[in-house]
C-alpha cells in the first residue's frame, strides 16, 4: 500500500519513506526509458540522414511520421517524469495525497493506481468536462 488509510490524519515517517521510494523508483524508470528513447531517436536520425537517396514522397512521409512518433514518445515520457517530480515535491512539502483543486484527501485507491495524481476524482472529472 502506498498511502496510509487515514491520509487526512498524516503519515508515519516509514509510510512517507515508502511512498518516496516508490515515486523515486518510477521516476528513475522513466528516466531510463527516456534515455533509451533518445538513443533510438538518434539512431533513427542517423539512418534517415544516410539513407535518403532515391526517396519518393511516400518514403519522405514515412520518415516524417516515424520522426514525429519518436518526438511524441519523448514528450510523453518527459511529461510523465515531470508528474513524478511534482509528486515527490508535494511529498516533501507535506501536500502529497491532497487534491490541488479542493484540498480534500485523494482516495487511497486512486493514489495506489495513479501515484502521481494531484486531484481527487471529482475535480479531475470537472476539469475534463471543462476541457471538452
Automatic annotation (TrEMBL):
Keyword vocabulary terms for this entry: Metal-binding, Zinc, Zinc-finger
Single GO term (MF): zinc ion binding
InterPro entries: DnaK_N, Znf_DskA_TraR, Znf_DskA_TraR_CS
Domain Zinc finger DksA/TraR C4-type: 94-129
Domain of life, per lineage: Bacteria
Zinc finger (dksA C4-type) stretch: 99-123
Species assigned in the record: Micromonospora sediminimaris
Keyword Cell wall biogenesis/degradation belongs to the record: no
Protein known as: Zinc finger DksA/TraR C4-type domain-containing protein
